[in-house]
Amino acid sequence: MNPFPPGALDANRQGELTQAQRAAFAGLLRQRNNRATIIAALLFVVAVLFGFLAPAVVAPVWRIAIIGVALGIAVSLVLRILTGGDRAMSHDLRHGRVESVTGPITQEEESALDADSTSVQFLRVGGDRFMVTPAASAAAPRSGQVRLYYLPESRKVVNLERLTAVATATAVAQRPLQEAIVGSWRNSFAHATFTADGRVTASVMGRSSAGEWSVDAQGRLHAEIGGRAEVAAASVSDGELRISLAGKGYTLTRDA
After folding, report:
1. Do residues 132 and 119 touch, judged by C-beta distance below 8 A?
2. Where are the beta strands (DSSP E) in 51-144?
3. d(CA 61, CA 40)
4. Gyration radius from the chain CA atoms
5. 3-state DSSP: the chain helix, strand, coil percent, rounded to 5?
6. Could you report the per-residue pLDDT of 121-151, keeping only the tens digit for each?
7. Which listed site, 64, 222, 230, 243, has its alpha carbon 20 to 30 Å from 114?
8. Residue 5: pLDDT band by 50, 70, 90 thresholds?
9. Distance (Å, whole) CA 159 – CA 5
């Protein structure tokens, strides 16, 4: 299956998942839960075997320790399944919202800490880093300007498109962040106003604060929100301010 389906680009550009993409990620979530169920069942079997069939060959201390560890892991897996498994993925599937980031692409690879010495693949776009499958890594371009689409909570990559020379020129021609961000923005739980003299006032879930903001040489937004200095990837497009902070994505729309 194509990890970057061209037929889904129109919906992804609108910030939405297609039904096929939603079904694929729901299947991935079910697969994770099924795998967790099998592991939990095997651990329960291990606990039973050591509890009833191995008292004569295993010292009591070790038997209790093995049973405790097996039951502890098994119960945690069962609770994870009952509470929705991967909360970030479940949240993304409920809301169906897609974020995007634009910029030059580079590929990275890191060794996994396992006995097989496997590697983990990453795509870096516009200062953001995303873990991807080997198939997605192989299908992604090695260089050039791209727009990458992802789920904001789980950071799962859903699509990618290589930008043409015209699209790249348009992106370059857009106002820089320090100009485009000036003004007032809001969503259902937050409101923020950025002024041209570097001041920001914000209200997040009823808590108001004021501080300073700036954009560094890498294009990252520095802002004092709620008394804390935060650094985030941010972009302004089509009347929306998109902020990626600590692995989570937030979208605010410009006040009229």
Report:
1. no
2. 99-111, 119-125, 128-132
3. 23
4. 23
5. 35, 35, 25
6. 999 987 788 999 899 999 999 888 899 999 9
7. 64
8. very high
9. 7
